[in-house]
Amino acid sequence: MSRTPETVALAERVSRVLFLVAGWLAIAFGAVVAGGAVVGLRTAGTSADSLLLAGFMFAAAFVFVSLGVLVSPPFRRRLRRRRPISRFGRIRTLERRAFDNGDDSFSRCDGCRSPIESGRVRLRREEYAIAGVPVYTVSTTRERYCRTCSEYADSRGDRPRPSADRV
Ligand SMILES: [Zn+2]
User: Fold this and answer.
1) Which of 45, 93, 131, 160 has its CA 20 to 30 A from that of 58?
2) How much distance in Å is there from the Cα of 12 to the middle of ligand 1?
3) Phi, psi for 99 (deg, rounded to 5)
4) Where are the transmembrane segments (predicted)?
């Protein structure tokens, strides 16, 4: 089988979906096991045996939820963007990458408004982080630039624009 870019892209998309499904299944299974442990404790009382069983179930639930989080692509993307573990609260990130519409469609450069088919895209995110891991996205801004404007922005040091709702 030849590995053309299309089949590679398709395989990547399929594996992403599979990992997503596997991740959520593991998380759901972990939640069910944790729920079972709680129900077990409430119905069987707090004898040594039921406490031990519940302990094992909580440990298993923790393992499954952790596995699910690690396997699931959206969580992995967040983990990849993580900051030092001491970071709590609002963080700003800037991601730069090339873009190419790949067809005859064009976008407008956010700097000079000229029509462009390819260039650089800047993805600014404002997120809340717990222990360095972004858990909630406040805002995402996507800016597309032509190469000239992109280089100009780079030369200015490219600091994120201050948002209007500063506290
Ligand atoms: Zn431009």
Assistant:
1) 131
2) 32
3) -135, 150
4) 17-39, 51-73
